[in-house]
Amino acid sequence: MAETISLSNEWKRPPYSWLTFMLFWCALIVVSGAYVTTPLLHVFESEFQVSKTMSAWTSSSFSFFYAIGFLLFGPLSDRIGRKTVILIGLLSLAITTPLIGLSTSFSVLVILRGLQGFVASTFAPSALAYVFDVFPSNRLITTIGFISFGYVTSGIFGQVLADLLYQWASWKTVFFLFGFLYFMTFIAASIYFPTPAKSGEKEGIRYYVINSKKIFSERNFILIYFITITLLLTFMGMYTLLGDFFSHEPFQLNEKQILGVRALGIVGMIISPFAGKIVNKLGVLVTLRTGIGLSALGLFLLGGGNHILFLVGMSIVYVMGISITFPSIMVLIGELGGNIRALVNTYYAFILFIGAMLGPIIAISLLSIGTYFTTFLILSLLLVGSFLLSLKIKI
C-alpha cells in the first residue's frame, strides 16, 4: 500500500487529486481509441468499397488485439513496474496512431488498428495495480471511480471527437490529433507519475499458471467474467447501430443531429465519479445490480419506442447503468483479488474487450436477419442474464 511504500522520485510527489486527474485523463484518451471508428464505419464503407460487416473490423481488430495485449502486459507490469509499462504504451500510441491516418488500403487500416489496440492495452492492466501501490486506502474507491469514469466516458468522448473532426476536416485528422494527444500525455505522465520504490514482483510462469487456475476455479470470478463480456458487447453493439437507427424513418436525423444524440450520452456518465460514494452507501453488490438493471431497461426500451425524446432518454438511462456497473466491478476485483488482483484485472480486461470485439459484428449480424427492435431486445436480454448472474455473487 502507498502508506508503506516510499516513492523513488527525488522531488516532491504531486497531490493525490492531480494524480487522480492524470489517471482519469489517461483512461479517457487511451480507451477512446477503441471507439473513434464507430461513427466512421460508413466513411470506410464508401472510401474503401467494403461491406458494413467488413468496415466493423476497424473497431473489432482494435478490440481483439487490445484484449490479447492484456495477457502480456499485465504480467509484464509485475516484472518491470507499472509506470514503465504505462509510459511504453503511451509512447507507442504516439507513434502508431498517426500511421493509421496515412493508410491507403483497407487491409493496412485494419492491421494498424490492431497494432494500435495491442499497444493501448498497456494502460488498463497496469493502472489498477498502480493505484493500489501509490494511493492510501482512504482514496482508493474514489480514484478507481474516476478511472472508471475515464473508461466509460471514452465510449462517448472518442465517438464525438472523431465525428467532429471528420465533419470539420477528414477521418485522417482523427488519428493525427490523437497521436499528438498521446505524445503530450506521455510527456506529462513521465514528469508527474511517481514511481514506487518497490518494483515489480518478477514472478515466473508457474506463478501465473497456478493463480490462473485459482481464479477460474473461484465461483465469484467466473460470474464476474460472464457479466463482464456483456458490457462492452452491448455498448459497442448499440452505438454501432445508433447512427443508422436515427438516420432512417421515422427519425431521419442528419449527421450533426446524430452527433448531438451521441454527445448526450455523456449525461448518463456524470454519475460515474460518484460511484464510490454509492458503493459506500448501498454496498458494492447492490450498486452492481442496480447498474445492470438500469442498462438492461434502457436498452430494451430504446428498441421499443418511437418518440425521439423518449429514445434519447433511454439511451442515457442505458449509459447511466453501464457507468455504475464498471466501477462496481473494479471495486469487486480489488476486494476479491487480494495480492493477485493485477492478474484478476488482466483477465477482466481481456474478457471485457473480447465483448467489445464481438459487439459490432453481432449487432450488424442480428440486424441483417431482423429489425432494430429485435436487435436491441436480444442485446438487452444479455444484460438481463447478467443481472441474474449477479444475484449469485457472494462476498
UniProtKB/TrEMBL annotation:
Belongs to the major facilitator superfamily. SUPFAM superfamilies: MFS general substrate transporter. This is MFS transporter. GO terms for cellular component: plasma membrane. It comes from Ornithinibacillus bavariensis. It comes from the Bacteria. PROSITE patterns: MFS. InterPro entries: MFS, MFS_dom, MFS_trans_sf. The chain crosses the membrane at residues 16-36, 56-73, 85-112, 118-135, 140-162, 174-193, 222-242, 257-275, 282-302, 308-334, 346-366, 372-391. Its main location: membrane. It is a multi-pass membrane protein. The keyword Transmembrane helix applies. Keywords: Cell membrane, Membrane, Transmembrane, Transmembrane helix, Transport. GO terms for molecular function: transmembrane transporter activity. Residues 19-395 form the Major facilitator superfamily (MFS) profile domain. It is found in: Cell membrane. Pfam families: MFS_1.
